[in-house]
Amino acid sequence: MGLTASSPIVLEGENLTMRFGGLVAMAEVAFTLKRGEILGIIGPNGAGKSTLLNIITGIYIPSSGEVRLEGERLNGVPAHKIVARGIARTFQSSRLFGDLSVLDNVIIGRHTHTKAGVFDAIFRRGRAKAELDAAAAHAETLLKSVSRGLHEQRHRPAGELAQADRRRLEIARALATDPKVLLLDEPSSGMDDADTDALMDDIRAVCAQRPDLALMIIEHDMRLVASLPHRVMVLDYGQKLADGPYEEIRRIPRVQEAYLGRKAAQHAGA
Ligand code: ADP
Ligand code: MG
């Protein structure tokens, strides 16, 4: 079905504030994410982008405010239960099992995200072979849907993959839990422009194949949110500066000043 004007809100945050001692990492931020929507979140380093994802996924408990998934409050729900309810994510830094095969990383992703659970997923006695075969078949289908090239490398240890393929694998692993909401934290970080563009194409295809999936993609590079997201939210110093279609937000003086201006200054070596 995809995003329409009447698509229901799947995820929303209200009045989210996060304090670390005296530091206010997030100040009264509100957001909504509709079914089938791709929301870009941009902002300079330290703006609070990862903090927002950590709040949504139960890693941080907000100092105040509330997150709701399909109307149900998530505050205080443990991280693994939030995954089970339908929110999956990738991290800014890789969390793959480098010694395990690409395929096994996806199979494990479907079962659990805790270390004890991983052990259980692989070694649990009495796990029927049929069940394992079904898990492998599901993982293969998933890998193919994310990237043919990655699927071809499914028996290689994840640690041997090129960086862009590691990112693809992280996405495949997150999708293995059949999420309603997928959160990507700077999937392009550390990659060159060509690899980044190819990865963005794959993310676009992943969304096209799953029209009901709601995606939140964090980037610090303005260029990367120009084409993929339906809507972009700009954070700066933990505050929401703007929220709207890229063509609108990029014209807002406060955004240009706070975000683009500073970036230009960084490029100039400041
Ligand atoms: P971004 O992802 O936009 O670069 P973050 O959300 O990681 O920014 O960080 C926002 C601010 O919150 C930064 O000043 C960061 O140092 C601070 N911060 C994030 N997590 C913690 C934490 N666990 N303890 C203390 N400060 C934190
Ligand atoms: Mg971050």
UniProtKB/TrEMBL annotation:
UniProt key word Hydrolase: yes
Name of this protein: Lipopolysaccharide export system ATP-binding protein LptB
Pfam families tied to this protein: ABC_tran, BCA_ABC_TP_C
Residue ranges occupied by any ABC transporter domain in the UniProt entry: 11-262
Keyword Ribosomal protein: no
Keyword entries, A-Z: ATP-binding, Hydrolase, Nucleotide-binding, Transport
Molecular-function GO terms, alphabetical: ATP binding; ATP hydrolysis activity; L-isoleucine transmembrane transporter activity; L-phenylalanine transmembrane transporter activity; L-valine transmembrane transporter activity
GO BP term, example: L-alanine transport
Domain of life: Bacteria
Record-linked InterPro entries: AAA+_ATPase, ABC_AA/LPS_Transport, ABC_transporter-like_ATP-bd, BCA_ABC_TP_C, P-loop_NTPase
Listed PROSITE patterns: ABC_TRANSPORTER_2 (PS50893)
GO CC entries: plasma membrane
Annotated organism of origin: Starkeya nomas
Enzyme class: hydrolase
EC number of the protein: 3.6.3.-
The gene coding this protein: lptB_7
